[in-house]
Design goal:
Elements: E1 2-5, H1 14-20, H2 24-33, E2 35-41, E3 44-53, E4 58-66, H3 75-89, E5 94-100, H4 104-112, E6 116-121, H5 124-128, E7 134-135, E8 138-139, E9 143-149
Parallel strand pairs: 4-5
Antiparallel strand pairs: 1-2, 2-3, 3-4, 5-9, 6-9, 7-8
The structure holds acetyl coenzyme *A (ACO) (2 copies).
One acetyl coenzyme *A is lined by residues 19-20, 61, 63-66, 71-77, 97, 99, 103-106, 108-109, 112.
């Protein structure tokens, strides 16, 4: 697997990006502000992440996704560790993530990588998304903020 920055003349892999965030409008907005990285294998793109600077010190991973038939094999963890490495080498020292209250597997992955919960934005997904998002039989309403010092 090779991880590389998406070039400006390449089309972002929206099928993957929309797995992590159902709002195409929000995805397009943060891709324009940040940097998109893709993971490739012989048969094509299998993963993606987008990092966006928030301040001089802080960067946020706004989107991370692995194609459905390759999930659960350690690729997401590799992508997250690579995103942290990129942020660190670009001089950032705080790395943030926001995810849904219903994203149980994602919350497990982030905490296994050392992230700590730093806050909750109540009703974020109710206010910013037109559709009801359900995961693990739970409605996604609140955004759980996590942070790692890098
Ligand atoms: N309980 C405990 N641990 C769990 C659970 C669970 N329910 N679910 C997952 N995990 C753990 C796994 O055991 C593994 O840890 P380990 O390495 O110690 O065994 C880790 O979490 C998952 O690791 P990977 O196999 O690397 O994960 P994967 O390749 O599936 O990638 C990802 C994770 C990116 C979340 C993928 O499942 C995906 O694309 N999901 C759909 C899109 C999505 O929800 N993206 C995140 C949205 S939030 C955001 O983008 C900021
Ligand atoms: N992902 C998604 N859903 C899950 C997961 C998971 N990883 N784990 C459990 N669930 C869901 C189940 O699917 C089920 O939902 P459903 O009815 O929609 O299918 C529900 O959570 C669990 O339901 P039960 O089977 O009724 O739970 P159980 O009889 O196992 O009781 C309890 C839960 C009390 C937590 C039990 O596991 C236990 O005694 N654990 C050890 C003690 C403990 O941790 N207690 C809580 C500490 S906090 C406190 O006491 C305030």
């Amino acid at each position: 697997m090779k991880i590389r920055k998406l070039q400006h003349d390449e089309v972002p892999p929206y099928d993957l990006l929309l797995l992590a965030d159902p709002s195409r409008e929000l995805v397009e907005a943060y891709i324009a502000e940040g940097e998109c990285y893709i993971a490739e294998e012989k048969d094509g793109i299998i993963g993606v992440f987008v990092i966006v600077p928030l301040t001089k010190e802080t960067v946020e991973i706004k989107n991370i996704a692995v194609c459905e038939d390759k999930q659960g094999r350690g690729i997401g963890k590799k992508l997250l560790l690579e995103a942290i490495k990129v942020a660190k080498s670009n001089g950032y020292n705080i790395f943030e993530i926001g995810t849904g209250n219903s994203s149980i597997g994602q919350l497990a992955l982030y905490q296994k990588c050392g992230f700590r919960i730093s806050g909750v934005i109540k009703d974020f997904f109710v206010q910013h998304y037109d559709t009801v998002i359900m995961e693990n039989g739970i409605q996604c309403k609140d955004m759980i903020r996590l942070r790692l010092e890098i």
